[in-house]
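Here is an idea for our session: we take a single protein and study its fold together. Start from the sequence, derive the backbone structure tokens from it, and show both lines together. Once you have written the record down, we can walk along the chain together:
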Amino acid sequence: MPELPEMETYRLMLSERLAGAQIIGTEVTREQSVHMTAEQFDQALIGRTIWFVERRGKHLLFHLDNGKRLLLHLMLGGWMFFGTDEERPDRTVQVTIKFTSGNLYFIGLRLGYLKMMSVKDVDTELAKLGLDPFDKRLTLERFIGRFAKKRGNIKAALVDQHVIAGIGNCYADEIAFAAGLRPDAKIPTIEQATWERLYEAMHRVLMEGQARGGYMDDPFTSGDALTGGYNGHMKVYDRAGEPCPQCGTPIEQIEISSRKAFLCPNCQKEQ
């Protein structure tokens, strides 16, 4: 599932291509993905201009010139491609938004969605999201405070979008590794110095993931050399059996709260 670095990469590339672009047509093959009929979706979007694209956690918001928003959540298996009909991947497309410069294809939206919403409805829908990791209001003290009432493990809390918005399975494991903290560490046992390492590791790992284009392999455009660049730089996630890049100990896969988690049993000893 795309996480903060992947969605921020999408936001930057979409903004570069679509800010100020007018929509000239749409095509919907799965109406459940847009929560309205294909005809209603087409009528609502043709002639509209995208002013800019905003990210909130794992969501993207396309701001339209009539004050409406298109709220996107790709969820598991969803991704986007921008280009011509000849360039697009040979995959099932659920939604297409057309521009004079190319088409934006939404692929794999079986669980994800693209909903037309008012500002008020968006605010209601996203009201329970936690602060973004890069929100200036998220100081170290407030970061620690977000976990104050939690009694479970740190990975489950890191991926809880009500605590911090944007972190999922991949980056939770990478952040825990960078902080030298086991992902199954119980929150009440974590000491101040470890919280400080975790807070710094969160920013460092997410910034590197974003700078390298995230870990998803599917390119956004033909010739896209950025998307997926972080995949070869992950230290533990999906690396079971491979040597730890710091000490050489084989990476272990464990299960935490019905989720897979990856760690180095030698480098991550903090409880």
The first strand starts at residue 25 and ends at 28. The radius of gyration is 20 Å.
